[in-house]
Amino acid sequence: VAVDGSPKSEKTIAIALDLAQRYTSVVTVVHVREYERYEGSDVDMGPPISGEQLVGDVETRFRDAGLEVHGELRRVSSGDTPQQIVEVAEQVNADLIILGSRGMTEWKSLLLGGVATKVVHHAKSPVLLVR
């Protein structure tokens, strides 16, 4: 399950939790944190919560439900998020990728095609988009 810290991500987590409980799944929580270089420094493009805390909080929810869960935090340049989600899914041999249809970059996704669209087109496993 890919999480981005947006309010819509909560719905994605709830659906992933429900499916994981139904099928006693092992879950990988993925958060891809985008950074931009600006005047010699990295500028965090993510939500105000740290990536570690975001992944940790979501992992706790799955563990509290009695599920095996692993967290994956990736730090990338802007625009590399879809590739990282697909890469993690391939590395863990995911049976399903779950992510929101729109998240932190809603406005950008209208212009650039969106993370969800790119994941759908490049993933080797099925993708469940949550609206």
Explain what this protein looks like in three dimensions:
The protein is α/β, with parallel strands linked by helices. It is built from five helices and five strands; from the N terminus they run H-E-E-H-E-H-E-H-H-E. The protein has helices at 7-23, 51-64, 81-91, 106-112, 115-122; strands at residues 27-38, 41-44, 69-77, 97-100, 127-130. The chain has a three-stranded mixed sheet. A two-stranded parallel ribbon has the order 4-5. Strand 1 (27-38) and strand 2 (41-44) form a beta hairpin. The mean pLDDT is 86.
Keywords:
131 residues; three-stranded mixed sheet; two-stranded parallel sheet; 5 strands; 44% helix
Helices and strands in order, then pairings?
Layout: H1 7-23, E1 27-38, E2 41-44, H2 51-64, E3 69-77, H3 81-91, E4 97-100, H4 106-112, H5 115-122, E5 127-130
Parallel strand pairs: 1-3, 4-5
Antiparallel strand pairs: 1-2
In short:
The protein has helices at residues 7-23, 51-64, 81-91, 106-112, 115-122; strands at residues 27-38, 41-44, 69-77, 97-100, 127-130. It is α/β, with parallel strands linked by helices and 131 residues long.
Number of helical elements = 5
Give the assembly state of these chains.
single chain
Q: What's the main sheet like?
A: 3 strands, mixed
| First and last CA, distance | 14 Å
Structural class: alpha/beta
- Topology, number of strands: 5
Strand order of the largest sheet: 2-1-3
Amount of beta strand: 25-35%
